[in-house]
Structures are given as C-alpha cells and as structure tokens.
Amino acid sequence: MKAVILAAGIASRLRPLTDHTPKCLLKVGTRSLLERTVDALVENGITELVIVTGYLKEMIESFMTSRYPQLSIEFIHNDRYESTNNIYSLWMTKEAVLGRNVLLLDSDILFDPGVIKKLLESPDPDCLALNVHELGEEEIKVITDPVSGKITEISKTCPVEKAIGESVGIERISSGFLKVLFAELDRMILEDQQVNVFYEAAFENIISQGAAFYPVDITALFSMELDTVEDFRTACEKIPSNLQ
Predict the structure, then answer these.
(1) CB of 154 within 8 A of CB of 141?
(2) What are the Cα distances from residue 19, in Å, to 109, 115, 130, 149, 204?
(3) pTM of this prediction?
(4) 124 touches 49 (CB < 8 A)
(5) Which end of the chain is more exposed for a tag (fewer CB within 10 A), N or C?
(6) What are 129-153's pLDDT values in tens digits?
(7) Could you tell me which of 68, 122, 106, 103 has the C-alpha nearest to residue 174?
C-alpha cells in the first residue's frame, strides 16, 4: 500500500506562521505535522510515500530526505499550487499510484496513529475516517444511507442537519475504486477544467454513479485539522499527552 500526502497549499489563513514555513512543517509539540503523519504511517507498516508539494517545496523535500532516508518517497510538484485546489494535486498522482491500494491524507491534520490502524482494519476496502461532533459550515460533512451505511454525500455544502459527522481528511482507497476515481478526475479536470474544487467533489460524483464508500468512526481517537492560527494555538494546548 502507498500513502499519498497532499502538501501543496499556501495556507494563507495560517499567516504569519506560514510566511516562511509550509503548513505541514509547523511544529505542534515536539514534531511537525508532516513528521507526525509519516511516523503514524510507518508505525502502521506503510513505507512507500507520494508527496505532492507546491509552496516552499524545497523545505519539504529537504526535511523528508534527511529525516526519512530509509523510506521510498516520490515527490510530485504542483507548480499551479497558487491557482488550484487539492483535486488538482490528487490528479497529479495518477501515474504514481494507479493500480495500487492507497491511503490518501491531507497534510494539515493532527491525529492519533490509531486512526490509520482503524482504517486498515476496516472490512470495507474503500472508506474514510469520520469524526462525530457538532458541525458547522466549514467542515467537510458526510451523509450516509440509513439502511446500507454507504456515504451518499460528502461536501462542505451538504445540510448540517442530515450529516452524521466530519470527514477527517484520511481515506483508504482500493485499486479498483482508484481506477474509477481517476477516470472521474480526468473528466473533471481535462474536460470541465474543475481545478479549483475539493477532491471530495470527485468522490461525490462516483458515489452517485454507484461506487460504494463507507465511514469509519474514529471519534474516540484524537484528530484535528489546522486551518487557522487559532486552530494551531488550540492544537498546541489540547494535544493529548500520548501524542506529545
């Protein structure tokens, strides 16, 4: 299994913290977000990584090659990082991952390594980590079919009152699902020029066409997305002792 880490964004809402440092290299406690993500992957037996860079790519590449010389790491540079969203970064990994099972991770998540363990142990090969809490407008929300348990909607804009929780930003994807996903990404990007939307839009499209995708409840484990300076300060204050 390969892990894909999307780390291209500028993270303007985290300025001035990200003026000279990519978001994924911000330290929470003793380790950066990226270091914590990679350590969690290695702890769960995943040593092949694809990292999509953009903003301050040299810093990310230098850190990873010096910190993890034992890992197999492929860097893919999104030179359109200022004008595209994570759907474009994911699309760029097609040649590197097609035909493989993958874990897809956003690079701005502080999370317990047990989240990955739960996804890998799920009986459903295509699934995402779900955090159940009070929801607002900003979260990527998840709606499921009450009978089958399959995800029917996943977006920021779906109705809060129908959502069962928030997508954490970590997905497990089988090779078969991935083939369908990249076909949809090709259509959205090459034909419709949808380069500035969240990749969840592609998931929604193939789910509506019959692809089965399931949530895995990881609420009992710590997870937090860092989008703003306030988020960063909260993370530094609330990080559990076992993750220090």
Answers:
(1) yes
(2) 19, 30, 31, 42, 34
(3) 0.95
(4) no
(5) C
(6) 999 998 888 889 999 999 999 999 9
(7) 103
